[in-house]
Amino acid sequence: MAGYDVIVVGLGGMGSAAIRHLAGRGQRVLGIEQFSPGHDRGSSHGLTRIIRLAYFEDPSYVPLLRRAYELWRQLERGLDEPLLHVTGGLDVGPADGVVFAGSLRSCREHGLPHEVLEAQDLTRRFPGWRPSPELTAVWQPDAGFLTPERCIARHLAEAQAAGASVMTDTRVLAVEPRAGGVRVRTDRGSFEAGQAILTAGPWMSDLAPALAPLLSPERQVLGWFGIADAAQFAPTAFPVFVLEAAEGTYYGFPEYGVPGFKIGKYHHRFERVHPDSMDRQVHAEDEAALRVATTRYFPTANGPMLSQATCLFTNTPDEHFIVDRSPEAPEILLVSPCSGHGFKFSSVIGEICADLVTRGRTAHDIGLFSLARFAGG
Question: How many domains is the chain partitioned into structurally?
Fold first, then answer.
């Protein structure tokens, strides 16, 4: 077909990495984004995103994370400021809980350096914490955070330097299989390619309707709270964390980029939404869902809410990723949704996309992300 080797639809975390890796391999590639790169309407914004090796979700993610770290470090070469900031990380919860036990399992299976901290040890080492006595922590020194908007910009800059074409403020209406490839219809015309990669996050169901029964976009809220003792929440003193507690499961960051301690809650208020119509205002109920954790566990960062943002998780039934060919059209590669924990993998997922498009296979183990796991309902 005339046009491109590959069209990538959606240039957030995953799509920007995919177009960069494809262009780096000499592919004629077009990336299409409905907004501006680094926009705040999807799942790839918010100034900071956690990256961690001690992966409680499943130990099989750890080899992918090791490669992701390597690729992030390659991507940031030549920059004045890194894309990946290492703070160490804490996975905190009851000893028999999902977060603590899963994190410890990943550390042991993969030989990751780590320590186990009881509640009193956690407070002694990191004074911003006030954990309840039944909580235990896995400390893993390699964790930290990425700066997502800068990561996306860097991926796209390198892609364009390698010859990729990028269209922004362009809405994709349909991705249609054609003889020998695909046609992508947009509000600015149609484009053809041998293959397409859909990395459209919460809009995936609109473009790949067969995924609709599997995907549940969910409204999330992030808050930045005023700090009484800034030294306790500096990146050198306060690690990124995941906290499983009686009030819910939370994630948080040191102060960086803007004033305040940043915190979010997994499955914030269990609101299933469509990204075009979701409520993007932050309400008193949203603040309350976050403040219950700052009050109890981080009392010196329980000041006024200084900033807030909404974003989206696009959840699968088992909360693992989807990276697979479309069952109806093998020319279309479906990538993500990532169930709220995908950005850190963007660099290696981009590499995987390039492998699958150019070679038909990848050396990375992505068996966990196959659509076949949902067969039979």
Answer: 2
